[in-house]
Amino acid sequence: MTTLAERWKGLAALPRIAIATLPTPVERLAQVSESTSAEVWVKRDDLTSPTYGGNKVRKLEYLLGDARARGADTLITVGAVGSHHVLATALFGAREGFDVHAVLGPQPAGPQVLDYARCDLAAGATLHPVPSFALVPFAVHALALRLRMQGRTPYIIPGGGSSRVGALGYVEAGVELAAQLEARALPEPRAIHLALGTGGTVAGAAVGLAACGVTAEVVAVRVTDPALANKVALSRLVHQLVADLRARDERFPDIAHLALSRIRIEARELGQGYGVPTDTARFADGLARVDGIALETTYTAKTLAGLVRDAATRPPRTPLLYWHTLSSADLTPLLARAPLALPRAVAALAR
């Protein structure tokens, strides 16, 4: 039984496929703490699975469960050419018997961007490149129609897995962290810093934490364009989550407004845009590596940079939590069986 269902028995019936290794540990970051004068801890969601970790695994537990409950045999998802979400969906979707299709859009070129697309192919995904994210909805609709005409039953997973189903994985995560706080595995943080990409991680965590009475501020560090994830979108998702959970178990608290009041968007780390490294992200990356935490400059280093900035405004020794959402699994075996060259249209997406 999940931590969520242990507290609210009516939620035990939520469709779910257990693929994550939970709970993930919490640890003190000694070097980051010393450098910021704060008391900095990390929630190690890089360890959600030895196959491939990160925040997408928690979301996929509920998304794959829902897809199976609906009789789907094929998954369609979307992301940038170097998307961690697409790779996680390809790996775990194939493991659970689904065919996986991914509509890919452009992304600034980086040292590992095309490696992720190669890993997608090694995992068995079929890739559908489009030159602009504006074309993604049309491509997804056409692909779903084509698959249905072929007799398949597709299930569409939005970018980042950030639907009202996928976000349940981070409601569960928020409840899990609350249990660790109750067990005194770490001091209660004044603020919890998460990446704001497509919004599901932030919305779900805020709901789970508020439902358990955790009063920490949830700092959503923006790493994508405001049009993709913003306070309006977060509000809609939080209200949907709470309504869905209360419909299954009326004892789940009506905390949508409380959860939203705890979210603060930190936009200064976006820099020149998605996937473009910033100096503050590079600095945070260096700090974390001394503590044995590997970041990347698209999501996680910018998130830790937001924490470093926040620490400078608070009294010394203030407890803060960085929620680490990048997989730490070794991709070398997957790359070893991946094609050396990508289709030209896929490779052209790294710009």
Could you characterize the architecture of this molecule?
- The chain is α/β, with parallel strands linked by helices and 351 residues long.
- It has 2 domains: 3-55 and 163-324, Rossmann fold (3-Layer(aba) Sandwich), CATH 3.40.50; 74-152, 3-Layer(aba) Sandwich (Rossmann fold), CATH 3.40.50.1100.
- Helices cover 42% and strands 15% of the residues.
- It has 14 helices and 10 strands.
- It has helices at 3-7, 30-36, 55-69, 84-95, 113-122, 136-149, 168-182, 200-211, 231-248, 256-261, 279-290, 300-311, 332-336, 344-347, and strands at residues 26-28, 39-44, 74-80, 99-105, 126-129, 154-157, 191-196, 217-222, 263-266, 319-324.
- The strands form 2 sheets. A 6-stranded mixed β-sheet has the order 1-2-10-7-8-9, with helices on both faces.
- Helix 4 links the parallel strand 3 and strand 4.
- The longest helix has 18 residues, at 231-248.
